[in-house]
Amino acid sequence: MNTSALWAKKAKEAEEGLYWLPLDAHLIDTAEVASRLWHKWLSDSIRQAVANSINGSVEEAERLFIFLAAAHDIGKATPVFQAKCSFPATDLDKEIYDRLLMNGFSIRESREKYDFYSKTPHALASQLLLENAKDLGLSDTNLCRNAAVVLGAHHGKPPDTGYSEVLGAYGSNFGCSEDAWIHAQSELIQLALKNGNYKTLAEVPSPLMPGQVLLSGLLIMADWIASDSNKFSLVSTDCQQNIDSSERARAAWSKLNLSKAWDPWMWNPCSTSFDDGLYAARFDYNPNAMQKTALQAAVEASKPGIMIIEAPMGLGKTEAALVVAEVFRNATGSGGVFFALPTQATSDGIFPRLIKWMDNFDDGEKHSFSLAHGKAQFNKDYAELRLFEGSSEVSDSHDDNSEHTAFVHQWFNGRKKTMLADFVAGTIDQLLLLALKQKHVMLRHLGVAGKVVIIDECHAYDAYMSQYLKRALRWLGNYGVPVIILSATLPVETRREMVGAYLGNEDITGDWAQSRAYPLITYSDGDNVKSRVVESEGGSRVVAVSRLAREEVVNKLKDILSDGGCAGILMDTVQRAQDMAQALRIQFGANVVRLIHSRFIATERLEIERKLRETLGRDGQRPDKLIVVGTQVLEQSLDIDFDVMITDIAPMDLLLQRMGRLHRHDRSRPEKLGNPVCFVMGIDGDTFERGIDSVYHKHLLIRTRDLLETLNGVISLPEDIANLVNDTYDKHVEQTEEKNEWEAKLACKVSRAKAFCMRAPSQNARTSLVNWLNTEVLDDLSGKKGEAAVRDTNESVEVLIVKRNANQFSLIDGTSVPNGELSAGLARKIATQSVNLPPALCYPNIVDRTIKELETRTARYVAPWLESPWLKDELFLILDNNHSASLCGYKLTYTTEDGLVFVREDGGGGAGA
């Protein structure tokens, strides 16, 4: 039987000629790639995790992976696949068809001639043929489906319950009753066994569920590389020579040129080598007490797992986490770091700090880096990193004069592969998606399982997101991935839940679980959980806190800024921030007042943030007088320092975060602002001003208000942080109507989150990935549906803003745009003009109408632009010459001073949070 008559790949276009790839050649190509991935790219930690899943050695785990790679497409050795023709049919199709007949394979003219051909895709066929190998005349055994399901999952989704019935129902699709097909399938399985160095299927191990996920991700990666015809070329049907898969893989791997696993250490990697000098080597400064304590705890953990660092804002938690990550890498063999942050802005902010840290590595290697969020392609600094495109002209992509250790590898572009880069900074969504039922999620598991994971500002994630976070932590704990969680204001119950989720023990408790000590380092060593209280260092900062009515803000600022100074005003909604900025400009002038919020065009917001860092950062050139009005972006995104603060009331943990931007750095200040003062607005007797309680639940606002009243007008930082936060979220306080409502809302969030949250990893030897991704979120090219699923928000509508005057188009900055075909550079610039519409236009009762109106205008005025890959499927908000547009009963106006402003056209005013 000549299995070389079976095809795996063929030229897609008739004009490409009679070029194809035999099935056995593709299987061996993939096995060769798998071997290189295992030895040359994969981290030690993942190799060990797969080995643990079969209770065997790393060498045994490698054999299993090679076997699966060599067997992954045996489902193509079926008549229903081999009858698949190009459309329209080509001479190549006819030649392959004739060749199959000549070699004794009975086959119909096209796959459409087979019953329900869509029910027997080749990935499922591969799994079924392997599971039922006994019926194919091989050894007297039934391979456990725990290995076979990896083949069924290699197109991104394992089968659901009931999959095995198709083998009997559609036997003719598989060639079950025909000797030629049965013998061919048997030969290919024997070929896979030979590659895995097995004699019979009885020797093939059965991986536990976590191993199945990692092997599925590895197999997808190997198959994608081996299926790239630019690296593994098709061959002529006239070619009589044997295909040398080893040489093909060697050349392809050289061209692909993935970076080596991370090893930052040049000195002896024993625990005594890790000392405080590492901070000087990486960051050029001596560590403080918290940073020393974190390093000591990391070094002493013989089996590191999760570490939670609770410390005040501005104390260097980021640097501590990166140093701890190096220690954890040394203990576990991790191959990189993923740094997860709450927003795109915070991700952009951490990016240059990570690059600087990597530049100080001692391993002499270059490492791939990804910035993982929806606007990463518009980050100027990221775009300037060296790009390796896998070109055949590059003999050694890492032998260059680039000033940075980090580079961007083109193969990791795209949302499904971005987490596979060595180092990744991105939004928390990228980690939460680990727990979302979504096609190809096993690639995300593979990417994260080989890294140390750092989660910043853990307090910023609500009950809905926390369900996904806890499930992600359970998977990370199962893989043995070290996790470092950072927070300045973490409730003790959240601390306990995070540790319990990681260790797989929801009821875990101990002295560490109730401790209100602060700063505090909590960490696991195997199944044991320990904590260290950080010795106090330096004096406390006493912040005077008092109420202030909104109508008193102008006079208050006139008084306290009479000798100059920089004031920060934080408002809970964009609408309130815009109104405040407009009022202050009248009194102080536009040159003194700056506004920042989420409804500026992306490029303008980045520029505003840059200017704020230049003026109010640690080494900023501070103006004599400046008033910055902003929303929560100031709370999380920027390392800046105010002389005085005025803020809307918010839950206590967030209020304390805001105070972290007050007198953050040591510097001289105007005499009136020598001591930190924070004024709190938005409290109207027993209620709260309009908009505030639509952002934050009233129960938390009431708790915060009442606690502030007990403080006698002062908060001592950091001493008061732990008690204030935990008292705010204390479950045992007296039940009130607001508390009952809040608890019911939390329960609802938890229930809704579970709908698409995948199940926890199982250690049951009989559990497989079958039905693992049932009810998965729809797979979309942009990834927006998945990201929306892990955040509890109303649907947001993003638009691109352009101006239209008659038939002339331009951008906000005046750049002229032709109403026709666009250059790639101009299309990319247009794509940066994005902004989210106000919530009032995105509520469920109006969002469909909003989108329909935008689609109609986009098609009418700028349809040719959508041909550009940068602008495909985008919606445009087309402003008139006055920078305004009407939409669904609202008038929207964009200015560089205020961003996107909206009012009801019937005079009802703006709305929404």
What fraction of residues sit in β-strands?
15-25%
Using the CA coordinates, give the radius of gyration: 30 Å
Fraction of residues in H or I helices: 25-40%
Question: Which CATH architecture of the largest domain would you pick?
Answer: Orthogonal Bundle
User: Which stretches of 5+ consecutive residues score pLDDT under 50?
Assistant: 136-142, 266-272, 391-399
Number of strands: 30
Q: Would you tell me which CATH topology of the largest domain applies?
A: Hypothetical protein af1432
Largest sheet: 10 strands, mixed
Overall geometric form: globular
Task: Give me the side-by-side strand order of the main sheet.
Answer: 7-8-6-9-5-10-11-4-12-13
Total number of helical segments?
34
Provide the residue-averaged pLDDT.
89
**Domains, number:** 4
Per CATH, the class of the largest domain reads Mainly Alpha
Category from helices, strands and their pairing? alpha/beta
| C-alpha end-to-end distance | 70 Å
Write up what this structure looks like.
With 913 residues, the protein is of the alpha/beta class. The chain folds into 4 domains: 3-256, Hypothetical protein af1432; 288-533, Rossmann fold; 541-717, Rossmann fold; 794-904, no CATH class. Helices cover 39% and strands 15% of the residues. The chain is built from 34 helices and 30 strands. The strands form 6 sheets. The chain has a 10-stranded mixed β-sheet with strand order 7-8-6-9-5-10-11-4-12-13, with helices on both faces. The chain starts with 6 loop residues before the first strand and ends in a 9-residue tail after the last strand. Residues 136-142, 266-272 and 391-399 have low confidence and may be disordered.
